[in-house]
Amino acid sequence: MTELTDRYLFAATRSLPASQRDDLSRDLAERVADTIEARIDSGASTPETAERDALVELGHPASLAATYSDRPLMLIGPRYFLIWKRLLLFLESFVPATVAAATALGLVIAGGGWEVIGSSIGIGITVAVHLAFWTTLVFALIERYGTGTDVDETLGWTPEQLPQLPELRRPHRRMDLIATLVWLAIAAGFLVWQQFGIVWADGERTSVPLLAPDLWSFWLPYLLALIALEAAFAVWIYRSDWNWANALVNVALNAAFAIPVVWLFVEGRLFSPEFLAVVEPLLDSDAEWVLSVLFVAGVVAFSAWDAVDGIVKAARGGGRGTLDFPGNRSPRRTEL
């Protein structure tokens, strides 16, 4: 059995409950082997092409898995289920978010306040519901009145489209890296954007910076450099995985963030005087004290959690997360 067959078995069984995967994988492996042998014996394929031809003959792995697991792919009928699912997931992945963002931008330009957030979310949800309804309706009509086109032909499926086998060590580390880099980019963008004002007063956005402008003399460039180091460290973790040395570097990076931020806040140098002048009249002394405690506790808790998370990952020999649920961390490497 080659990697191509392994990828086919993985694609066919990955959406099934864990209790069914082994049995189905064995059955499919036997069926693939029998099909390969039959094609060679009949002269329908050469030994070099028999495996690929056998997988094409068996068809799309998701369709084949559905016939084994008593889970029919039904919209109105099974013929167009996979095409409908692929299109719907594609549209829902970006259309609602794009419409919501465009709506939010238009409302902000028109002078909207915090209500922009609620309005944008509501419009995004509405668009998502309409997309699901109208897409499903179109496919229901196609199912009822369309021709009997073969699903594999419609999907244009070939064995080359099979997913790569997951890495035994870190099955989701690329997703971790992308998520980390996106959030770091957002954080860096926020540090720059806040300087131009993010405060709404009397329903209008004002040019009041959140952080004190004199921090640009050192501390804000320091935080931007720290974000760059965090991005480089994330790439390093992606390439090398967690170990004790990386865990100690992670602790140092978190300390390098938390200590200056808490110190600047306690010294009253973190937020700009203009921002405090807008906010303080809206708060009494008790509210200010509670918010101050929550801010310091939040910074310390976030940094401590991330540092401890890295230590736990290193202690477990690497992996995606610290919680024990399927897919959250990979098994330790087994030495032969």
TrEMBL record:
Q: Where are the transmembrane segments?
A: 87-110, 116-142, 177-196, 216-238, 245-266, 289-308
Q: Give a yes or no for keyword Transferase in this entry.
A: no
Alphabetized InterPro entries for the sequence? Perm_prefix_1
Name the UniProt key words of this record, in alphabetical order: Membrane, Transmembrane, Transmembrane helix
Which NCBIfam families would you find in this protein's record? perm_prefix_1 (NF038403)
> What name has this protein been given in UniProt?
Uncharacterized protein
